[in-house]
Amino acid sequence: MPDSQILPSVREMWAQIAASPVVFPDDGISIVTSPRSRMCPPGWVGLVLLAGAGIGTAPDDATADAVRTALADCPPERLRDPSEAAKALPAGEMLGPVTLAYLASDSFRPSSGPAVEQLPADHPDLKALENQCSPEERHEASIGELTSPVFAIREGRDIIAAAGYVAWPRATAHMAILTAPRARGRGLAKVTASSAVAHAVAARMLPQWRARVPASQQVARALGFAELGVQIRLKIA
Q1: FRET pair for 129, CA 20 to 30 Å: which of 34, 176, 193, 233?
Q2: What is the b/e burial string over 218-233, where b = at least 16 CB atoms within 10 angstroms of the residue's CB?
Q3: pLDDT value for 4
Q4: Has residue 24 got a pLDDT over 90?
Q5: What is the pLDDT of residue 3?
Q6: What is the C-alpha separation between 100 and 141, in angstroms, rounded?
């Protein structure tokens, strides 16, 4: 399935998450007021840019107007560059841009390696893995929020890598991967993620990979994900 066939479904999913009527324009960025938006933390601004156009939500009308003014002459593609996004947006604090990548089932490139164990998302051994990682890494992975089984690799009795996904609207599988610091660089993220992606594809879901760091982006590409855009979340000072 080419990216052009995935894009409409992805855009509809993000428009639903915006929690206020909004559509991706032909070009530019459409900003709406939506205090219940799930595109960003409460009180923040959320932006999603896909294939040259974007949507955004703001918690109130004044903030929405400020963002519209800031982006009036800014091409959406410019915001893919973190330094350019920082210049263009009136942010007191900004998360992103983070890459949004999606996987068509016929583009999937599975990866094999060490034995992968399937566990429930609330398995107690997963907490030890989370405790080895930074608060930012734990928040990004959100292993405890997964709606899928967890696919894990052990070293001895310890889980050193795990992956799964959260069910998002429109049958989207939001991937989550976590590897213990001492086990990184060994390809374990790709192996566990491959099992999680295979589970999502079998369930006829569209896998989504949100990545901030280059290493995570590289894993997504290796599995066949295509980068369609970016997400930015910001808090206006």
Answers
A1: 233
A2: ebbbebbbebbbbbbb
A3: 62
A4: yes
A5: 59
A6: 15
Note whether 108 and 198 are within 8 A (CB): yes
Assign 33 to helix, strand or coil: strand
Handedness of CA 50, 83, 71, 89 (dihedral sign): positive
In the chain, the amino acid numbered 45 is V
59 neighbors 43 (Cβ within 8 angstroms): yes
CB neighbours (10 Å) of residue 159?
Answer: 27
Residues 6+ apart with CB under 8 A from 32: 18, 20, 21, 22, 55, 56, 57, 58, 64
Cα end-to-end span (Å), the chain:
42
Find out whether 84 and 77 touch, Cβ atoms under 8 Å.
no
Residues sharing a CB contact under 8 Å with residue 83, sequence separation 6 or more, in sequence order: none
Number of Cβ within a 10 Å radius of residue 189: 26
Closest alpha carbon to 220 in 228, 139, 168, 203? 228
Say what the pTM is.
0.91
Q: Are 38 and 17 contacting, i.e. CB atoms less than 8 angstroms apart?
A: yes
Say which residue, 59 or 82, is predicted with more confidence.
59
Cα–Cα distance list, 120 to 52, 162, 173 (Å): 39, 11, 17
